[in-house]
Design a protein that fits this description.
With about 260 residues, this protein is an all-alpha fold. It has ten helices and no strands. Keywords: Cell inner membrane, Cell membrane, Hydrolase, Membrane, Methyltransferase, Multifunctional enzyme, Protease, Transferase, Transmembrane, Transmembrane helix.
């Protein structure tokens, strides 16, 4: 039994490290996609001074700690966001494996969470959600429906419209109430999650986004006419629904003796 625990510890440790390394690549995507720089070729470089980084500068998390959060070549401060995203990559990899087991479904779940992480930070930086990333989620949604059958096609199709359609209609009534990228994101992920879990994801996004919006108003960092990126809150809600949606729904129903 002890050897079995050791074996699982090694496997999940490897998954964690692999996820952290992939998280390092996500940092590349977050920076390069909005800048329209190819992420398939070209060495990594310091955004401040443009100096090409060596392998020793690119060890996830460790390089940041060793360099004390500064570029080796120009001394410019490196955002704490870089190791944070690397650690989130590891956390998502581990969460996927623990939620779905060592299966292809875990791989898809990890891929979805990584894309959502990239979307969240690009939206924070640019107030835009790239269509290519939404298309990637749509492809994964179709793969999930075909291969895993956790939800029915009917539930998926309803999920496609259950949040995206009301958002679109609200945009027609109140101009720019939601971004087009937010609507597309809800459609693609609704197809993957099904209508029940998509409703849960939207509720989480509205609550967390509402709290953040209230904070901005109270601190007078924004007024009622200003917009803020809603993609990060949608991404957060979708990730929670992806991994714990059924648990949350069942817990909610049990509170009211409906389960």
């Amino acid at each position: 039994m002890g050897q079995l625990y050791i074996a699982y510890g090694v496997i999940y440790g490897f998954i964690l490290i692999a996820g952290i390394c992939i998280g390092s690549f996500l940092n590349v995507l977050i920076y390069r996609i909005p800048e329209k720089i190819s992420f398939a070729k070209g060495r990594s470089f310091c955004p401040a001074c443009g100096h090409e980084l060596r392998a020793i500068d690119l060890v996830p998390v460790i390089s940041f700690l060793f360099l004390k959060g500064k570029c080796r070549y120009c001394g410019d401060k490196i955002s704490f966001r870089y190791p944070l995203i690397e650690l989130l990559g590891g956390a998502f990899a581990l969460w996927s494996a623990l939620s779905f087991g060592l299966t292809w479904q875990a791989v898809v779940g990890f891929a979805v969470s990584c894309i959502l992480l990239v979307i969240a930070f690009i939206d924070i930086d640019t107030m835009e959600i790239p269509d290519g990333l939404v298309l990637a989620l749509l492809v994964l949604a179709v793969v999930s429906l075909i291969c895993f059958r956790d939800i029915t096609w009917i539930s998926g199709v309803i999920g496609f419209f259950v949040i995206s359609l009301p958002m679109l209609l609200m945009n027609l009534i109140i101009k720019d109430s939601f971004g087009g990228g937010d609507i597309k994101l809800c459609a693609a992920c609704g197809l993957m999650l099904g209508w029940q879990q998509m409703l849960a994801a939207a509720l989480i996004a509205l609550v967390t986004g509402g709290i953040y919006g209230a904070y901005l108003l109270i601190t007078k960092k924004k007024d009622r006419k200003d917009h803020f990126a809603f993609g990060p809150f949608l991404s957060f809600g979708i990730i929670v629904a992806l991994f714990a949606g059924n648990f949350l729904i069942q817990s909610y129903l049990a509170i009211f003796n409906l389960a």
